[in-house]
């Protein structure tokens, strides 16, 4: 940590800063330049994060040098984490192809979609039972009934499943039915939820918040890891911006950016990022080329009847064509996509 | 709702859209222009919000005409809502001056700060017992012990109190100790939390999310109102932006913007919006001039020892000078600031 | 300037950085910590700005300590600059009230508006002759004919005038007719234009770019100042954001923020910032309360016939009521608004 | 164009809007619903763009239905434009690989870099002679001397060249030396520059502004096209955002987004978009997978000695490896990269 003092600090101000740092158990290192005095602080600066050094009289700026996360960092674990669920590996060159409808709307339609995405090559099945909707008057999900359908479809098609948890009180319930717990963008900084999920041993898919930096995303992962659960998959799903022709702005640089700092896998969700089926295939391809450890795509057999986010769903046919493209790109790039085994579809 | 079709739609496409609208119980109204065909949909379009008309073949754009919120709107209640808590009115020309430390750190220091802000003219006391911190290694708040201190200070200084609730499981506990429940920016779209708080009868202070539009903020208020609790105060606290010299970008236009659409009071929080004590007084004054129904300011008697957000706290003396400024501005603008009664401080 | 090295740098890497700094004429100052090695660079770091120290092998981060502007800074000139034009002072507690239509559309209508804003208390007259329109098919301004009308109205009503210059080739022409040269938001980083205007001795009004930080704005002012013209008034006019209910997001904290770093006056333009007449009065009041050295408001006697930006213009009557509000606020805040003299209107 | 009236408009208000539309030569189409009255306007709405219908009393919203650009649109020219310069085709499946240093710093170093990028497979040579620098104290480019070096290197290595024009007064000069005129991000809405360049017959590379939407970018292209020059290549180079770990946020969805609306080629510039050599290769690969018609990459043989933007330059070796990756991706995706002919390098 570097502390920059205001121009012409008094000797008392300098002395007070030095004492304060020593009080906190760190070693200060003073450099007096012509225009600024700088104090380096030697020691584990994560312990200083809660200390408002900036509020000390005479201090102009406090500049952290180390990353604020530890367990999520590459320094802690240099090799990419690879997680396996129902035989499907995710991370370290193994790509997840997660697909399904936004919401689970009923057994028949969900099985129909599950069969279609499985046939197209998806290796994880998604579907929402608890839906975070911006309007209280919109469909809020089927709850436990939806979870039962999800589990039945996962069993039927031998696919691991992922579904969103919105409330700490739902965790036990969801853990009984799903293989992967999704934390949605709106809950990326719901810290109580992160902590509770960190106490389970389920694989977690953590979506980037709409105004979260990559560092914020990694800090939220750190919350989960700090509670003992180290199985976190990050997910880039676009951030809010001024561009009004797409639902969000997809920040694909977050993929290599996170991978350069963390061992955790990171996948990309072009469906929520763009909100536009005409852009999803190109952005899914781009995600894999950027190095993503998988994609997350919403698919529906009848988008115009979907109860949630229909307009952004792909139909099964273009989805199947897309998975073919992804396979060819993966091959060129030296990566693999595991297939679900054990049932003929 | 207006549905714009793609250029040269087929008669079947047009027919299908018309039928779908009628199926849903609405009356379509067709206008065929040279370059575009437009279908107006007559009826309460809020019921259409969950219906993905945009996914119908041949549809280019679906343009909502009505606002998606109802109970929060001025059309529902034309006059400004005024809420009263422990004799302090907020809304409709009555200004809240909410002050206190970011976190409750201990009884002695909290009473010292409470006394100072009360003496300076604050009429609501704030302090966090559950803290949403971006790092799991930062101070997370004193929990129930903090709530007890908050209540004791509110009683001692005859001030209504406000504190944050982060988790639905904390609501009962917090309701026992505090007068106003704060929903933090990171939880503005924690819909389960909104719904549960909507089932209490406590006054609520709902902070704008870091990437929420004014409409999003009003939709979150609508969640609370839709459950029966109509006592919501909105709070502008800055949004994320590219400007890196302030913590957030304070969007003061949200004040008149929300007031033009909603009867709910809206206050401003220059502390979190700017993160800089040198800018807080100017922005608090500007908030009142913009029409805010109050301000929310962090105050600490020793910012450099604060366990949370110390660098953005004002000292009691500049805070007292600021309240004097706000009183003079309020007078010029025809507004009033209620004082806490019943105890000599 | 502080150079942070990557973890475990080799002795050769450290040596190379130290030599490079000395080669450039600076004194390096090495601090080796447990987890990072830091090198402070003593000397005028502005000279280092063009040097890509970050590209040196082993360097993780280069952190500037000083502000990159000099002539615009408070360190260079601690007291606020006050500029006078036709007897109107701007800066240092003297407020500009700049008003007029977006574009000069014809002599009769411009004189009618000029008379109205003068009567309402405006002390600078604005009107565009060269218009930066996003569409090549929109009205582009009357050019020199417009400038003649502007000058005639300024003379008739004894008001200083301001108009936009978009192209270095227009500068001489515009200087012959107008008192203040406006640089529009879209040209804030048109560096050739800035340099040429810096070689004139005209007062300049420099608008903040749509994605410019306060530091960027001050760097653009520095361009003008570095050429010899020190008469620059800054103007906050909103920045691009995700909020879609206003034209831009007005960043009022830029006012005290710029004033804390620079001696240059800064005014606020709520017309372009909000694009909504229903929000302009509240935001103009807030601007003055935030400490702005003036406001810039578009006024039109018949907005629905305006050739440019009609929907955001105020009518003369609400504008006159607004100026009354501003006078009362200015009085409370200890500031003054000069009046145009010399003609009875 | 659709005009939405405020609730309960008076018959006079409705009448006035209808008359105004007819006066302007358009046919209004009235739909009166329960909660809103809507007026469709039939006719070429581009002519209405300068008319402030929103300022008419009783009007709540004016919603355009058609895109505001014409010559740049796919409706005007359904097939992708392909431009050829010195035998290199760009657009319609033919990829540009544009490379070179940020600034031309001298003959020897520029020839060295040119030779390296040509050998690596680049097919267009870039280098700046006029540099838009945020600081007036930074290196501003070699001017005409730089242009001469650029031309000599283009001739020597049989490569077409691209360089930035910042000022309308430089156009003739630059046209004498370079094959492609670059309009930088900061000048994307320098409308006088756009118009003047629109009167030349040179190929143009137009970079997206830092806060420009895709529509804004296409409108700026429309400016050039409207003057007669139809040879415009768009360039995505990142936009400003809150993410502070990259220089800009690269919006790759702009690639398929622009291609869906316009026949103009669009390339991607991961160097300026990320500012980080560690992210450039991944983002260049992603750009091609997203469908970009080429990439623009800064390369320098000695980044730490570069006079401009050194830290974001790739070294020749990783650049050559990247071009190999791009060739393999292009092959899988059915696209081609033309090679420069005529000289053995």
CATH architecture of the largest domain in chain A: Alpha-Beta Barrel
Secondary-structure-based class of chain A equals: alpha/beta
Question: Which chain pair has the greatest contact?
Answer: A-B, 55 and 54 residues
Total strand segments of chain A: 14
Low-confidence stretches of chain A: none
End-to-end distance of chain A, in Å?
57 Å
InterPro entries (chains A, B, C, D): Aldolase_TIM (IPR013785), Class-I_DAHP_synthase (IPR052899), DAHP1/KDSA (IPR006218), DAHP_snth_FXD (IPR041071), DAHP_syn_2 (IPR006268)
EC number (chains A, B, C, D): 2.5.1.54
Organism (chains A, B, C, D): Tautonia plasticadhaerens
Keywords (chains A, B, C, D): Transferase
Strand and helix layout:
Four copies of one chain form a homotetramer.
Chain A: E1 2-5, H1 11-23, E2 27-32, E3 37-42, E4 59-63, E5 83-85, E6 88-90, E7 96-100, H2 107-120, E8 124-126, H3 144-157, E9 161-164, H4 171-177, E10 180-183, H5 191-198, E11 203-207, H6 214-226, E12 232-236, H7 254-261, E13 266-268, H8 270-274, H9 280-289, E14 294-298, H10 316-332
Parallel strand pairs in A: 7-8, 7-14, 8-9, 9-10, 10-11, 11-12, 12-13
Antiparallel strand pairs in A: 1-3, 1-4, 2-3, 5-6
């Amino acid at each position: 940590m570097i502390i920059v003092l205001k121009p012409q600090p008094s000797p008392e101000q300098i002395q007070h800063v030095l004492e304060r740092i020593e009080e906190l158990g760190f070693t200060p290192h003073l450099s007096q330049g012509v225009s600024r005095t700088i104090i380096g602080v030697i020691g584990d600066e994560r312990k200083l994060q809660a200390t408002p050094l900036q509020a000390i009289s005479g201090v102009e700026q406090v500049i952290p040098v180390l990353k604020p996360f530890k367990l999520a960092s590459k320094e802690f674990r240099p090799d990419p984490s690879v997680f396996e669920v129902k035989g499907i590996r995710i991370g370290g060159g193994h790509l997840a192809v997660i697909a399904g409808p936004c919401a689970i709307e009923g057994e028949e339609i969900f099985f129909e979609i599950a069969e279609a995405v499985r046939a197209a090559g998806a290796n994880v099945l998604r579907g929402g039972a608890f839906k975070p909707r911006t309007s209280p008057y919109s469909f809020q999900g089927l709850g436990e009934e939806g979870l039962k359908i999800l589990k039945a479809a996962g069993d039927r098609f031998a696919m691991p499943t992922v579904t969103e948890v919105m409330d700490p009180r739902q965790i036990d319930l969801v853990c009984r039915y799903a293989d992967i717990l999704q934390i949605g963008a709106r809950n990326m900084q719901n810290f109580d939820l992160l902590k509770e999920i960190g106490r389970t041993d389920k694989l977690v898919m953590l979506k980037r918040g709409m105004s979260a930096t990559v560092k914020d995303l990694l800090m939220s992962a750190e919350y989960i890891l700090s509670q003992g659960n180290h199985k976190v998959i990050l997910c880039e799903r676009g951030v809010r911006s001024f561009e009004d022709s797409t639902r969000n702005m997809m920040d694909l640089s977050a993929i290599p950016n996170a991978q350069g700092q963390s061992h955790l896998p990171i996948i990309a969700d072009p469906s929520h990022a763009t909100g536009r089926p005409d852009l999803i295939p190109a952005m899914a391809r781009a995600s894999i080329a950027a190095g993503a450890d998988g994609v997350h795509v919403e698919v529906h057999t009848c988008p115009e009847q979907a109860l949630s986010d229909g307009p952004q769903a792909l139909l099964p046919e273009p989805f199947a064509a897309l998975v073919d493209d992804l396979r060819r790109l993966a091959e060129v790039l030296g990566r693999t996509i595991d297939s679900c085994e054990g049932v003929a579809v």
